[in-house]
Amino acid sequence: MTRFTVNNQPVHYRMDPETPLLWALRDASNLTGAKYGCGRGDCGACTVDIDGEARRSCRVTIAEIEGSFVTTIEGLSRDRSHAVQQAWAAENVPQCGFCQSGMIMAAAVLLEKNPNPTDADIDTAMTNICRCGTYPRIRRAIRHAARIAAGGENIAAAPPPGITPADAARTVPALSPAVPKDPR
């Protein structure tokens, strides 16, 4: 049996039980946020939340997680309103972007367990590799996300991919009441 829950949806994969979770997510569910990096669990590009733990999905078989709850970057928040996603954008963390979904998932799990982590806690929890070396921005973003999650700061959700902030403001009048209506 390979039944578990992915992003709050029950799934049953009809694949070899020894299939790595990464490939079930990417190939069978079209959830491509978790990236294939090294295939050995070293880089963390494929990190997902499994039952509240940040795990490398390339090293976990679908048989091992029977009955588990899996959250991928796609399930963290549909509108990028999660505190970590907001802080990531506010701190301009991404450079090449390859490691970002794994980093965000590891940071989200860290903040669920420890809502006010020290720099040492962040360094211990964030074992993912960033090829671009954005570690200082990552640490800043995690501290920023902790403030957002604690209610100490509020950032409006980023618009979905492919939509400019100006276009997003026009579609949500409550966010921008001063935007004039299109005269057409």
From TrEMBL:
Signal peptide: none annotated. This is (2Fe-2S)-binding protein. Residues 154-184 are annotated as: Disordered. It comes from Sphingomonas cavernae. It comes from the Bacteria. GO terms for molecular function: 2 iron, 2 sulfur cluster binding; metal ion binding; oxidoreductase activity. Keywords: 2Fe-2S, Iron, Iron-sulfur, Metal-binding, Oxidoreductase. Residues 1-76 form the 2Fe-2S ferredoxin-type domain. PROSITE patterns: 2FE2S_FER_1 (PS00197), 2FE2S_FER_2 (PS51085). PANTHER family: BLR6218 PROTEIN, OXIDOREDUCTASE WITH IRON-SULFUR SUBUNIT. InterPro entries: 2Fe-2S-bd, 2Fe-2S-bd_dom_sf, 2Fe-2S_ferredoxin-like_sf, 2Fe-2S_ferredoxin-type, 2Fe2S_fd_BS, Beta-grasp_dom_sf, Diverse_Oxidoreductases.
